[in-house]
Amino acid sequence: MHLLLALAVILHFGSIQVYSQDTNLICNAQTSCNDCIQASPSCIWCADPNHSGTRCYSGQTSNVDCSSSNSSTNYIQNPASRVISQSNDSFTDLNQISPQSVSISIRRGQPVKFNVTVKPAPNFPLDLYLLMDLSYSMNNDLDHLKSLGGRIADTIRSISTNYQLGFGTFVDKPLAPYVDTRPGAKPCGTCQVPYSFRHVISLGNDSDRFNQGVQERIISGNRDAPEGGFDGFLQSIVCQDLIGWRRNARHLLLYITDAGFHYAGDGKLGGAVIPHNGQCLMPSQPANGNPVDYTQYDVYDYPSIGQIRQKLREYDIIPLFAAESSAEPFYTALASELEGADVGELASDSSNVLTLIQESYTRVSQRVIISPDNVPGLSFNITPISCPTIVGQACEGVTLDSNATFEITANLLQCSEALTQQATMVTFRVLGFGSFTVNVSTICSCECEQQQDINSTACSTFGTSSCGICQCNEGRFGDMCQCDGRDATSSNTTMCEISTLNGQVCSGRGTCVCGRCNCDTREGDLEYFGVNCECDNFQCDRDSEGQICGGRDRGVCTCDGQCQCLTSSISGRPYTGSACDCSPDDNTCINPGDQVVCSGNGECVCGACECNSEDFTGTYCQICTTPSACPVASCNDTMQCAICLVDNTASNCEACNDTINRVNGIGSGYMINGNRAIPCDFSSGGCEYRYYVALDDNGNPLPIHFDDDSGCAATVAPWIIAVSIIVALLIIGLILLALIKLLLMLLDYMEVKKFMAEVQDPKFRKNENPLFESPNKEYKNPTYGQ
Predict the structure, then answer these.
(1) Is the separation of the CB atoms in 701 and 656 below 8 Å?
(2) Which of 157, 206, 499, 509 has the maximal Cβ count within 10 Å?
């Protein structure tokens, strides 16, 4: 036992020593104060002009003395990251975030942490804009929306009395091949001529005017299945003045349709070949309160999904999609690309639109998601530390009597030119709740760099003294700029140190010139560097394609042979892995039926879920192996009752009558009584079925919601199929015989008609048979008449 303990202590201190040596190697290779403090958070620079030896060293090394006996000046340059200030904001009806602003100073490798709290405000302002598909297949939906009258306004008023309603419609680009472009052509007798997007009612609280605008709408139509709603979708977002979005309000954009959508590239079929510029292309105010049409449909292509995602984030708008069952998969996939989006299944006649509005609002208003701007060189890790339900990086179930607190960790990954020139303002958007800002000042240069002695005697009058070293003028080099580049020779190598790497001058990778190593050059981006050319940037791990540190966009090879991973320009998070070959993208870790990273029970590491504990397993950590540890209901406890719905012969079905509700077409992110539900799947009779389970706030199971749209299609008795086939064959045979008989009769009729025509109009000539000899002969008497 004592032997094992001693061995563990030896290994521990051995690992510390190895780490210290590696860090020292990185620090000692730096030749300037700025490079020193950027190389590692452990690196310290000694700016004492009288200091001899290595100036950049690891703070874990205790044998470096950076103090001058003739001065009380502190020459140690070791700046630390810190929170400079943060506002002390109180929560009000219009402010739901505290603090509203934070200022930090950050050094590479030294993260800064601070907390942000979000508390929902009662009666927070609400802006809801309805964007409805008016193609012909939505005829019944429009009729039902008209019949609702003022009930839509009443529903919104029950959510917030400080509300605004707006309304717009879309069909498709009035260009071929999307619609019939013939003059005066209409999809139907009572339809209006197709149009792209029509803004009808700006946001306001006049429910009568809103209802009147809905009542006056007339259905239209197009030819192809996808609709052209993206033109109107983008204009509804970016035309802030025309739509009337308020600054301090929760912005909801409800998109109602029964079909898929055209997107960037589809417009080229109609001649709209210019990519959309993402700008508002409509007037800022409607003329005399009349509807306003989008007229640039024939110039610009449909917007891209990326443009819509960017503009939704820029203007803090939450998209809600109400789509019929046939189109719901399209919008579920689209919602996964749009931050905070919600999808609900629309009934075939839109009869459940009010329910969808209430349920969607409940979900989005109780979900807190913090999303920072993507700034190259900076990364922010957002961790919920106090909220009712933690799901990945989001808080759910945040009601008026609760709040959500997040810990935000800021990291400086690289000192880019943009970050070092001035402080960077980073906006953090809390979807549906507002935003706050973080003012980031990077520590990429030393304070001593600001004190410069030009043409200093310490630099032989040929350089600038700063931070204890000389920055030589052009053509001069050496520690004191004592070397002239025109007269320098490499014959004397005694002034260059012998490398501990291989015992050679300049590590065998360079030439000693006037006491300084000039490192050899390599092809391409490969290089040697360091005081003794002991470092290189090509002996780090490579990815599967042979690229060092995953390529220049993913990582940089440092002196210690380790990859320093960079930030992804897409997600704003750094790449991971020894070769920076693991993407921070977490799309592959999201269960299609849940839309939560690793089902909220794990982390996405290199594109795969790593579950937080042994209590969860599965591709998405969606399977709970220990029911007592499950934060949500277990599928195993409810499977038997679900089977009873499809199998009458199953056992113990009597106790299940009151625990199951049948629901048609359950969408992603489904909630049961405001609690997040998880999908459960099972097989019976060769068919796949799905149902959802959830727990209430006290941990008690809620009634099961069974998806009636899952499973197999209704089966038909075999004898019905056989009789149907026989009858169909007989009918087809009789039809074929009748057709053949009709064809023969038609041919006979045509021949008779031709014969009669020839008889009635003969074209014969009278001719004699050349072989015919007449029986009459005429002889003439030669003596007659003499």
Answers:
(1) no
(2) 509
Is there a single domain that holds both residue 132 and residue 238?
yes
Q: Note down the domain range covering 412.
A: 89-120+369-443
Shared domain for 42 and 94, answered yes or no, is: no
Q: Are residues 356 and 229 in the same domain?
A: yes
Cα 410 to Cα 110, 360, 452: the distances in Å are 9, 32, 32
Token pair, residue 669, equals 């992110």
307: CATH: 3.40.50.410
User: Quick check: 41 and 478 in contact, CB under 8 A?
Assistant: no
- 254: closest CA among 337, 145, 181, 176? 145
Do residues 398 and 328 both lie within one domain? Answer: no
pLDDT in tens, 611-627: 888 888 888 887 777 76
Q: The tokens of 274 are what? A: 């210019």
Please spell the DSSP secondary structure of 490-552, one letter per residue: SS--TTSPBPTTTSSBGGGSEEEETTEEEEPB-STT-BEESTTS-EESSSS-B-TTS-BTTST
- Distance (Å, rounded) from C-alpha 506 to C-alpha 495? 11
Same domain, 12 and 116: no
Task: Cis check for the bond before 99: say yes or no (omega within 30 of 0).
Answer: yes
Amino acid letter, residue 483: C
What would the DSSP string read from start to end of 114-135? EEEEE-PPTT--EEEEEEEE-S
Report the alpha-carbon distance of residue 560 to residue 549 in Å, rounded.
13
pTM assigned to the model: 0.62
Assess if residue 545 is contained within a domain.
no
Is residue 618 situated within a structural domain? Answer: yes
Q: Do residues 43 and 110 lie in contact, with contact meaning Cβ atoms separated by under 8 Å?
A: no
Q: List the beta bridge partners of residue 605.
A: 608
Note whether 375 and 400 are same-domain residues: yes
Alpha helix (H) ranges present in 124-206? 139-148, 151-159
Q: Is residue 239 part of a domain?
A: yes
Number of structural domains in the chain: 5
Half-sphere exposure of 521 (CA within 13 A, CB side): 2
For 312-347, letters b (16+ CB in 10 Å) and e give bbeebbbbbbbbbeebbebbbebbeebebbbbbbbb
Q: Are strands 317-324 and 250-257 parallel, antiparallel or unpaired?
A: parallel
Q: Is 264's pLDDT higher than 90?
A: yes
Domain membership of residue 175 (yes or no) is yes
336 and 191 in a common domain? yes
Domain boundary among 654, 678, 707: 707
- pLDDT single digits (tens) 60-73: 665 667 765 455 56
Spatial CB neighbours of 779, under 8 Å, sequence gap ≥ 6: none
Looking at residues 455-464, what average pLDDT do you find?
88
**CB burial of residue 588 (10 Å; 0-12, 13-18, 19+):** middle
Question: What's the distance, CA 413 to chain centroid?
Answer: 22
Specify whether 330 is located in the same domain as 228.
yes
The Cα 395–Cα 679 span in angstroms is 20
